[in-house]
Queue: 2 jobs
Job 1
Amino acid sequence: MSDLEQIKIAVRNFTAERAWQPFHSPKNLAMALAGETGELVSLFQWLTEAQSRSLTPEQLADAADEIADVQMYLVALADQLGIGIADAVANKMVKNAQKYPADQFRGSARKYNDPPA
Amino acid sequence: MSDLEQIKIAVRNFTAERAWQPFHSPKNLAMALAGETGELVSLFQWLTEAQSRSLTPEQLADAADEIADVQMYLVALADQLGIGIADAVANKMVKNAQKYPADQFRGSARKYNDPPA
Amino acid sequence: MSDLEQIKIAVRNFTAERAWQPFHSPKNLAMALAGETGELVSLFQWLTEAQSRSLTPEQLADAADEIADVQMYLVALADQLGIGIADAVANKMVKNAQKYPADQFRGSARKYNDPPA
Amino acid sequence: MSDLEQIKIAVRNFTAERAWQPFHSPKNLAMALAGETGELVSLFQWLTEAQSRSLTPEQLADAADEIADVQMYLVALADQLGIGIADAVANKMVKNAQKYPADQFRGSARKYNDPPA
């Protein structure tokens, strides 16, 4: 079984064991995801970019926990909506490749609808 | 290869083809993740919980795209930090199970450090 | 003095007394704002809309604290950028009124570029 | 009238003219706030801290618009909850000063419950 499938099953079981399904509307799960993302981003808020590239072991453990929380709510949300994440990613990558042709955006962080510098 | 591994490889290639690695510090990727999560949550902001459970095909397609964007930045962030997402989720689930024992939190949305109602 | 001005002065003093100005780049303040917004949104994630309209005194106190944190970082960010919040709001309201003409959007939550139902 | 009061009145009128009050539960407004914060943080995601301190006029105009959107939803949320923002900020500043005594946190970005370096 794929790892996203495994996470989905584990999250389903965890939720069912606590009878939390009534709380897990897509709306609510999107909010929970936003809350966890806020915790993740706050880990990096006072770090320089260089510091963020070489976290201490404790910072790394915190980041791993927050990444896990975001991943679990993302899986739960996709599951509630009947969306397969791997397929959604494959589809979006095709769109992104059209939006950002490699030869026009090399080394540039501009938005796809901004003019080249 | 697992699907999270496949996404990691695809995101790495996409980034490398555009020479975007210098922008992809963990700090910046955490911000990009927050931005995409904001787009995802905004899809649900004016919907009732019931409406969020039965999206129109167009809303569902938008949600799939935003879920994909969140997933891709999450994978990119974990990759930059050298964190394996599947392992991080497995570890965090053990912690969550200790924080929220099933018999004490059944049907309750209270926080682990709040008293029972 | 206006109340946004007063908050600005108070935040400046608080920051200066701790010599935190080097951390307060606009980039970092935007991240801190995202983190606090995440805490605010998480207060509401498992509540129904009806419950969110009648918070308990404790929930209300938590919401007030998080609203204050968001307000302080928003003021700090605007201050670092030299943006006057009251003017920015006045300008944006004019744009929003053009984007959402009252007679075309009455009672509708659709986006300005979506067709009427 | 104070400027936060003025914004509150303007937001109330804007909302009433479009009959949008039914959408404006605190839960929904917290989500809208998270969405706008996501847009604000995304403006800074690929900028260095130095670049974020010297925005181009166009970037500055975008930032002003997003700051305005965040401010308006924050005011709307506080209004729905019956929370006075200026008072909430004053109260929270007292708590923050106790959490972060100036002499112990000078020049340090550590969290209040982390040990000094």
Job 2
Amino acid sequence: MADRLDRQIRFIRELDRLKSVQRQTWLMDTSRKENSAEHSWHIAVMAMVLAEYAPGGDVDVGRVIQMLLVHDIVEIDAGDTFCYDNAAVSGQNGREQAAARRLFGLLPEDIGRKFKSLWEEFESRQTPEALLANALDRLQPILNNYYTDGKSWQDNGISRRQVLARNRVMAEGAPELWAYIDNLLDRAVAKGILRPSAS
Amino acid sequence: MADRLDRQIRFIRELDRLKSVQRQTWLMDTSRKENSAEHSWHIAVMAMVLAEYAPGGDVDVGRVIQMLLVHDIVEIDAGDTFCYDNAAVSGQNGREQAAARRLFGLLPEDIGRKFKSLWEEFESRQTPEALLANALDRLQPILNNYYTDGKSWQDNGISRRQVLARNRVMAEGAPELWAYIDNLLDRAVAKGILRPSAS
């Protein structure tokens, strides 16, 4: 029992490092970039607020939340991969598999299995819960971008076409939210904070 | 419907501000103090790891997680209250009640009611779920303090007696974790990073 609790505490100590993994998204007050721990909190609460937009409407919100809490833990070893950086994206899977083995391997086996299974469900995007979770993971940075006058889009020269291509998973996981975002991107282009698709 | 989604997005934008509410706890690498959003994420994942230590052992983990995700949202308006600052603690309740009215009032009424109810359950510490949630909320800063050589304890001249008095709620919510912490505090005193009770 002591050994089991020691392993649990060891993992909990390791979690602290996700607070130092920086994302490309800016906080809405533009004071600094966001980290992956606070991002995970934000989208987990979003699941509580927006669960009704899942297709069919009756997802297991508890599992969506747990997936979102766990989905970025591998970044403790693998780092955050900027979604528009194709070279970085290509090596992402191998890095994250190794990270999952090490990090979830710190836990007692039954709990480690559960964490790995939630992470794999999120990554596979097959279940309604995983589709909604992925949609929320995409929605939040788009909102933060829009409400910082497109700061990260502009810093990285991102176009409307790239945002649409990258985030089309939202169309399946939360069609009404996708329509909302499609409209938001039109407004972003009209405001001159996002490059139009053709340019 | 458009109005409902607008209210949901309005609330989600407001949530971003919790990432700028600073706590007294240091990150384990001592690079900076922690904020309330990433703290909330940390303890929500801890609930997934440590739920078995609830007395009786069969709490609704999903509700524990949701309580922990929501419990600090009022700090967006009310700020974080350092638990050893008795003057600040005395005005805390009124500030947080006003914050709950404004913040949860941004949401569509059905969702706002649910958030308020989770926050009140956490604050009232009556249910097994609320007791475990409160225990985890106390456990995490103690671990961060211990593994930063008592940085926040030392900065604020905190003694073992104060830590015990403040965190005794853990004895009810997670007795085995409380025993673990009691032992950790002994080691902290022995290492000279926490003032002994008598001094």
